[in-house]
Each structure stands twice: as C-alpha cells, then as structure tokens.
Amino acid sequence: MTPPSANEPVNETGSLTLEQALNEHEVNAAIVDVEEPSQQLVLFRVAGQRFALLGSVVKEIISHDQPVYCVPGLPPTTEGVLHLRGHIESVIQLNVLMGLPLPNVTQPGMILLVSAAGIRSGVRIEQLDDVCDVPTSLLQPPPDTLSSALRPYVSALWQPQEGVTAVLLDAETLFKAYQDGLG
Amino acid sequence: MPLELLSDSAQQGSVPMVLFNAGAFRAALEARHVVSMSDQPHAPRHTEAAALLFQYDGPATHWLTLNDASGSWQLGVNHPVTLRSFAASELYPLPPLMKARRLHPALCGVTFEQQTLLLLLDARLLTPQAINS
C-alpha cells in the first residue's frame, strides 16, 4: 500500500495522518516565521555610493530647496545651518569622514535630519533612493575588505538586489567622530 | 559717539544687541558689553571683528569700546551699526556639532534679521588676545 503524500487526505472523510497534521503545523509555523524582525532603512547615495541609515534615526527628509545659511569659522564639511520651523539645525557633509570625494556644489542634493548620540544634525546626501522595511536576517556583517576610512562607521551591509549593495551606517559613531574633530 | 544703549531698549524677556558687519557676515554683540563707539581706534588694544570670522574685508569703519579684565579695548566693525532687542526665543544656541568644531569660542549662536543670518558673539570670549592668537 502506497503511503499518502504530504497533505493528501487518508480517506474520503478528509481525515489526515498524524504526520500530515504535524507537517501542516510546521507549514503554519513557517508562515509565522515570515514575520521576523525587520528594520526600516533609509537608502541614499553619497559620492555615487549606496548607503543606508536606520529609519529610527532619520527624523525628516528635507528638500534640496531648503536654504542653508553659511556660518564662518567652521571646517569646510560644516555647510551651515537650517532654520526649520523655529529650530536651528547644523548641516554637515560626511564625505571626508568616510573617505569619499566632496559633493558637486552645483547639485546640492537633499538633507537627512538625523538624531543619534543625543545630537541632531542635517546630513547632506546626493540623492534619496528608497525607504523600506528589511528583515534583520538579510543584514550581513561588514566584510574586512571595506576601506579603513569607512569601516568604523559601518554596522551592516544589505543587498537590495543582485549586484547592488547598500552600506548601513552607524549614525551614533559618525556623529561622535565628527564631534571629536574627524572629517 | 556714545551708544546710550540700555535705557529705552531693555525690554522684559529680550536681549539688546549691537549689530554690525564683519567681512561678508552680519554679527551681533550683547549691548551691555559695549561702552561706546568711535570712528577711530584710540585704545592701545584693538582688533577687527572680521579677523575673528576669518573674513577680513577692508578696514573697519567703526570701533566699539569693550571692557575685559585688562581694561578697555576696541573692536573694529563695519557699518551699518545698529541697536536692536531680540526676544530670547529668537536667539538660537549653536547646534552641538558646530559648537564642537567652531574655530573660535566666541561664536555662540545665530539669529535672523529678516531673512539675513546674524552671528551671535559672546563678548566675554572676544578679547584682542583671543582674536590675534
């Protein structure tokens, strides 16, 4: 006698074997497993490279036409200040800190308002790519091949598609390094 | 040329400020630190505000007299020099990353005069020695 296949009823009344019932439970468990922990990522580019920040640290995405007021007596990577609904926010560029070329001044790009390490600041980006939820299991540890300038600020890598990799940045480490005079 | 700053302009919850140009920027000092204003420097210790902001742009047109622990000294500024009170809510401290990276400690905040950014300078940290160092 041939044993019934996976979820095929044993008889015409529709009853299952114990094995089938247990298998079905595992299928259901697998469905629940899809709802694994995920993190919202804000994907963007700096100097043509793809980066991401956790959605939890990005408080606002600011359009390129928001005026930035230049303040003298600061390093070139400090662009100036934003006057945003009664608050003043600094605007910085992370290019030098991450070992990347400086942005093209004729294409200023957008600004991410980032809050980390008890500090809030605007961060200049070249372009915004996406905001999406990513299962935590798809985040990979940073490889040893990352440049030494970038490595201290990278918490993970994510491949949104074949051949495309986004570098997940640690905003807290970036801000602390900038505050300490790097970049 | 006395400024006669504090008699009429001091209002509840506001800060009287002396506004001036320094290089390409407009800046302000708390008026209570400004003793007087003249067209020429006469104090032995004097320097120009534009040097503080690394924005030297020609000779000063006015000289503000201030005091520090060593006595009077003069700060060279450019016209127009005006007096205006700002509500405390209009005066913003420098954001933390900028405070950490500023090249001179006297740069302490910003405000706006219409659409123009105004740099707030702490007169107590604005000494000729500090500027020239």
Write up what this structure looks like:
- Chain A is mainly beta and 183 residues long.
- Chain A has 2 domains: 1-33, no CATH class; 38-179, OB fold (Dihydrolipoamide Acetyltransferase, E2P), CATH 2.40.50.180.
- Chain A is built from 2 helices and 11 strands.
- The relative contact order of chain A is 0.18.
- Chain B is mostly beta strands and 133 residues long.
- Chain B is built from 4 helices and 9 strands; from the N terminus they run H-E-E-E-E-H-E-E-E-H-E-E-H.
Number of strands of chain A: 11
Mind describing the biggest β-sheet of chain A?
6 strands, mixed
CATH homologous superfamily annotation of the largest domain in chain A: CheA-289, Domain 4
Percent of sequence in beta strands of chain B? over 45%
CATH class of the largest domain in chain A equals Mainly Beta
> Helix segment count of chain B?
4
The amount of helix of chain B comes to 10-25%
Give short descriptive properties of this protein:
A: 183 residues, five-stranded mixed β-sheet, 2 helices, 39% strand, B: 133 residues, nine-stranded mixed β-sheet, 4 helices, globular, disordered N terminus
Briefly summarize what is shown.
Chain A has 183 residues and is mainly beta. In chain A, 14% of the residues lie in helices and 39% in strands.
Spell out the blueprint of helices and strands:
The complex is a heterodimer of chains A (183) and B (133).
Chain A: H1 18-34, E1 38-46, E2 49-54, E3 58-62, E4 68-69, E5 78-84, E6 87-92, E7 110-116, E8 119-125, E9 127-135, E10 154-161, E11 164-169, H2 171-179
Chain B: H1 6-9, E1 14-22, E2 25-30, E3 34-38, E4 46-48, H2 49-52, E5 62-68, E6 71-87, E7 92-93, H3 96-101, E8 107-113, E9 116-121, H4 128-132
Parallel strand pairs in B: 2-9, 4-6
Antiparallel strand pairs in B: 1-2, 1-6, 3-5, 5-6, 7-8, 8-9
